[in-house]
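Re: calcium ion structure - here you go.
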Amino acid sequence: MTPKDPLLVDCDTGIDDALALLYLLGDPDVDLRAVTAVFGNTDAGTAAENTLRVLELAGRPDIPVAVGARSNWRGTVHLAPHVHGHDGLGGTGLPAPARSPGTEPAAELIVRLARENPGKLHVLAIGPLTNLATALLLEPELPELVGHVTIMGGAVHHPGNVTPAAEANVHNDPEAARMVLRAGWDVTLVPLDVTMNEVLTEQHWHRLRTGGTAIARFAAEILKHYLDVYQRDVFGVRCAACHDPLAAAIAAGDVSPVLAPKVTVDVDTGDGPARGSTIADTRGRHRGFPDQDGARVRVVLQTDGTFADRLVERLGGAADRSLDVA
Ligand code: RIB
Ligand code: CA
């Protein structure tokens, strides 16, 4: 995306979604036009309310928020209170937002913004892909109207984080993910392969806690919960993955992938153990990963591992004193 291209974020706010929104809102060159909410980390209504809270905290109550899908296309709902807390924000107990979400449904808002900005709109999808797939059904020309789609989702060579094969955003609605990845628009896919390698640590938490701004303090509060969960369930040490913030930074052009070939990507929609897995054609790996003819999905397979520092700096974290010399 060029700095001033209009951006729409579709998310299931969620701890890392909140950090991603705050990261984007901290850049005056990012033109965030709307946020659409979907079920996932929490129910769609709570995700919309959390989004409103984050926008108020960042001083942007002007940005429209819409509620979208409350379940996937099969009518099932998987939520993640064990990861994001009962309120989706680590049980931080923020006050209710001052305003309510708009009445326009999320998929309709996506279509309207795409029509109003033909060839320009960048969609950053960091939750299950149900809203985006519904928008594709509403407007078959959407792939021509949208400039670019960046998705946090999938696991290519990395294990899944919900099942051995499936990453959460794809697992929550494999049919929708398949439709979005096959729609014939330009997509950047940011899978677990890279988001699990860009990690926030206890030191980052400390920098945020002592950062002195309301945004830094809020980020520290939600990150504390996230670090507890990742230590307990994933890494065994105090590190937490930067899933959605990394996708946001790639969408904004702040992180340039080290390796990101254009390859075909499909999703397993069967009912076996591979349901929700992302199958990317990475057979070119021994030939330097040439882009595949006709492929429209760029799969990010490697970043440089330094993003968390920049995230913390953007969110108002205190300077890193560990680099000072005596
Ligand atoms: O698998 C990680 C993704 O699932 C992130 O987007 C997280 O917020 C959850 O939605
Ligand atoms: Ca998310």
